[in-house]
Specification:
Layout: H1 2-30, H2 36-60, H3 70-91, H4 99-107, H5 111-153, H6 161-169, H7 172-185, H8 192-203, H9 205-216, H10 221-224, H11 227-250, H12 255-265, H13 272-279, H14 284-312
Helix pairs in contact: 1-5, 1-9, 1-14, 2-5, 2-7, 2-8, 2-9, 3-4, 3-5, 3-11, 3-12, 4-5, 4-11, 4-14, 5-12, 11-12, 11-14, 13-14
């Protein structure tokens, strides 16, 4: 019994602080201590400056090497690719215009903030470095799959490989990870003052980003959510982690790598799915509902899933 309690205590220690920080952000926004303009500016700051700094300096200063992590990266990529046709099959009964938002909401996770935060809480700097590398690989696929989906299901969207390549190459998160890997490979030595400044910037990333996500949540959407929103959320929180963990087991991943794979797979739907749905003519209301539902229930599914991994795969 003590072992089981310790296992669930560990799982909650990973997920609960993240969820409570989201609730703090939600509460501060409701009492007007976090304005919409502040959240917009802070979100841009995180995406363009502090999160790239977090990724760069964490990978640069860690023992993680791309060549050592290929089983994790390949398992994550293959597992993610497999979830897309599964989500497409589940979306078949929906109206044609709703399918793109449903499918993207069902497979596209919030890796950059919640996934990284869970990984850091569970395994510290080494887990964060592994999660960052995995995030880079999966994010590239996310962008390709999402644009292709809206090109198929929306008349407003026009697919362009050239634009997609530019978007990926200009993504500050991917750029930061690539620069960190190249810097490690060539043996670059940075002055301590630069490293310390980068670490200062990095340290504000996750708390600020989580507060912004919480402030952006609209839980009133839960009352207006359709069956499709709940179905997509269930797919994201239950089916996607099972598929990726199964692939990870086939690749023989170690305990920490498998847990990192699960935590990123179990992350709720990314806010980017709403932005892309609105920009490319998808059902943005459905996308927003999926984000709200999956974020709310991810604390339960991620905690239980991590506890089960600890029990059955010690």
């Amino acid at each position: 019994m003590d072992a089981i309690l310790d296992t669930f205590s560990f799982a909650l220690s990973v997920t609960a602080p993240i969820f409570l920080t989201l609730l703090v952000g939600y509460g501060l926004a409701r009492v007007n201590l976090l304005s919409e303009s502040f959240v917009d500016d802070a979100s841009k700051l995180v995406f363009l400056v502090t999160l790239p700094a977090l990724l760069f300096f964490n990978i640069f200063g860690s023992n993680a090497h791309l060549g050592d992590e290929w089983p994790l990266l390949l398992a994550g990529l293959i597992g993610t690719i497999l979830t897309v046709p599964l989500a497409w099959l589940v979306a078949r009964p929906l109206e044609h215009g709703d399918r793109s938002a449903f499918i993207q909401g069902a497979f596209r996770g919030n890796l950059g903030i919640i996934g990284l935060a869970w990984a850091a809480n569970a395994y510290g700097a080494s887990g964060l470095a592994q999660a960052a590398l995995l995030m880079a690989v999966i994010t590239i696929f996310y962008n390709i799959a999402a644009v292709a989906l809206f090109a198929v299901y929306s008349q407003k969207a026009q697919f362009s490989w050239n634009k997609l390549a530019k978007d990926i190459l200009r993504n500050p998160l991917i750029v930061a990870i690539v620069l960190a890997l190249v810097s490690k490979a060539v043996g670059l030595r940075l002055p301590q003052v630069i490293v310390q400044t980068g670490e200062y910037l990095a340290s504000v990333t996750l708390p600020l980003a989580l507060l912004c996500i919480g402030a952006s949540l609209d839980l009133s959407m839960l009352r207006r959510s359709s069956f499709g929103a709940f179905a997509a959320s269930a797919f994201k929180l239950l089916v996607v982690p099972v598929v990726l963990v199964a692939v990870g087991l086939l690749f023989g991943l170690g305990d920490q790598s498998l847990a990192i794979l699960f935590l990123l797979a179990a992350a709720p739907t990314a806010s980017a799915s709403f932005i892309m749905a609105r920009a490319l003519g998808g059902n943005s209301q459905l996308a927003a509902n999926i984000i709200a539902i999956s974020t709310l229930f991810s604390i339960i599914t991620a905690s239980l899933g991590l506890a089960l991994l600890k029990v059955y795969l010690p």
